[in-house]
Design brief:
Elements: H1 2-17, H2 46-54, E1 58-70, E2 84-99, E3 103-106, H3 108-111, E4 116-120, E5 126-135, E6 140-145, E7 166-171, E8 179-194, E9 199-207, E10 219-222, E11 227-232, E12 242-246, H4 247-260, E13 270-275, H5 277-283, E14 290-296, H6 301-305, E15 312-316, E16 319-320, H7 324-332, E17 339-346, E18 349-356, H8 364-373, E19 375-380, E20 383-389, H9 394-397, E21 405-409, E22 412-413, H10 417-425, E23 432-439, E24 442-449
Antiparallel strand pairs: 1-2, 1-4, 2-3, 3-6, 4-5, 5-6, 7-8, 7-10, 8-9, 9-12, 10-11, 11-12, 13-14, 14-15, 15-16, 15-17, 17-18, 19-20, 20-21, 21-22, 21-23, 23-24
Length: 452
């Protein structure tokens, strides 16, 4: 009898000491072991030091998704009543520790559609992650894991990048520890179309450091070991080139998501184009580069600040502007309510202009449509119908009529006025907009310049 009691007591004690499900997750240990003394100084190159210092902060992102698909058997189930099946898919990508309290940053396309997300650290530990928020327009996603004191990747700036400077791309693809490639900054302010995601990404860093889908979401670092971009593999036709999201833009996305739960884009209300040397000579301005204002929306912060079409913006907060893309990059990090100092050349004279960025108006997309195309919309059973065409507008001159239907904006299908408004609002920084208009039985792709 005493032996039975002892066994029962031991069994109870063993149950009490057994870890619960939440306790079975091993916390990551990201210790940075020093480079062995046996390694000579000649081998301790800057790339070696960068890789050694940042690899503990680079993680592998593993996602799972459930897809439900109706399957039709033409003989036994021609209508698909019994053919609903579930498929489980998995994908892998990279990410890195943004802050030591468990904030992980990766690409939106790495975690898009995931039903569960796990983060694998360099020491082999695996921790479940929660998706905090995403910004599809910049391809950034923010995750959180329940871990403290994590080793972080030092965040630098992308505002002073130079063409030709050395960069290091680091990832954790396929769970195979760290992967390091090197290259240089090939170009800045690149616009990159992605057929897979049905959108065009703007202001990306171009590098010849190899970036593959497994490395997507990892950090791009300068030779000092500071993060200057987030690697993204979104261009299927790219061979020998890679792209990265500028870290200055990513920083605003992360801060907005953590503070507000979503990205709060600031609006200025000025459409610009790149001033080329040829155009500068044609219009007779002393400025040789910059962003030329081609349209100012009525009631916008730019209008309130006195910006005018024809003005040439040569600097933002003291940083030189040499193109429309660089102007967009420098203002993309502004928060609503923030004053932005611009240097503007007008009639050959430079002046300082202060623009206070604002929240985009809810009807921004419809304002854009009226300003650039002279169209007002209504909804009907057959979609988004054009109710009014402004007299002498570009639309009237090319034959658009009341009763025609808008079926797409920039290649994306639209079904409601809200779809059109959102698509156009997200295109406010573009140089032109493509409207797919159904006229009769034919769909026409009509291009509308954003400038005047």
């Amino acid at each position: 009898m005493k032996r039975t009691r002892v066994l029962i007591v031991l069994f109870v004690v063993s149950l009490a000491c057994r870890p619960t499900e939440s306790q079975t997750v091993r916390q990551p240990r990201q210790e940075r072991a020093p480079i062995p003394q046996s390694v000579s100084a000649a081998r301790r190159t800057p790339v070696v030091v960068v890789a050694h210092d940042v690899l503990p902060a680079v993680v592998n992102i593993q996602t799972e998704a459930t897809i439900r698909r109706r399957e039709i058997d033409p003989f036994f189930d021609p209508f698909g009543f019994f053919g609903n099946r579930e498929y489980h898919t998995q994908s892998l990508g990279s990410g890195f520790v943004w802050s030591s309290d468990g904030i992980i940053v990766t690409n939106n396309h790495v975690v898009e559609g995931a039903s569960s997300i796990s983060v694998n650290f360099n020491d082999g530990s695996k921790v479940p992650a929660k998706l905090i928020g995403v910004d599809p327009d910049s391809d950034v996603a923010v995750l959180r894991v329940s871990a403290k004191g994590l080793a972080t990747a030092p965040i630098g700036t992308s505002g002073d990048l130079m063409i030709g400077e050395s960069v290091v791309a680091v990832g954790n693809p396929f769970g195979l520890s760290g992967s390091v490639t090197t290259g240089v900054v090939s170009a800045l302010g690149r616009s990159v179309p992605s057929k897979e995601q049905g959108r065009t990404f703007t202001d990306f860093i171009q590098t010849d450091a190899s970036i593959n889908p497994g490395n997507s979401g990892g950090p791009l670092l300068n030779i000092e070991g500071k993060v200057i971009g987030i690697n993204t593999a979104i261009y299927a036709n790219a061979q020998g080139i890679g792209f990265a999201i500028p870290v200055d833009r990513a920083r605003k996305v992360v801060q907005d998501i953590l503070r507000y739960g979503q990205v709060r884009n600031a609006w200025i209300g000025a459409v610009t184009s790149t001033l080329t040397p040829e155009e500068a000579q044609r219009i007779g301005t002393q400025a040789r580069s910059g962003a030329r204002v081609s349209r100012v929306f009525g009631g916008s912060p730019a209008a309130a600040a006195g910006l005018q079409p024809g003005d040439i913006i040569t600097a933002v907060e003291g940083h030189p502007v040499d193109s429309r893309e660089s102007f967009s990059t420098l203002t993309a990090t502004a928060a609503p309510g923030q004053s932005i100092a611009l240097t503007v050349v007008r009639n050959g004279a430079a002046r300082n202009v202060s623009v206070r960025a604002a929240e985009p108006p809810r009807d921004l997309g419809l304002r854009i449509l009226w300003d650039i195309a002279g169209l007002r919309l209504g909804e009907a059973n057959r979609g988004v119908v054009i109710e009014e065409v402004l007299r002498n507008s570009r639309s009237e001159k090319i034959g658009v009529q009341s009763g025609d239907t808008i079926v797409g904006v920039n290649g994306e299908q639209v079904q409601t006025i809200d779809d059109v408004s959102k698509a156009l609002a997200s295109s406010a920084e573009r140089s032109s907009v493509v409207l797919n208009i159904l006229h009769g039985n034919v769909v026409y792709g009509l291009t509308y310049p954003m400038g005047t």
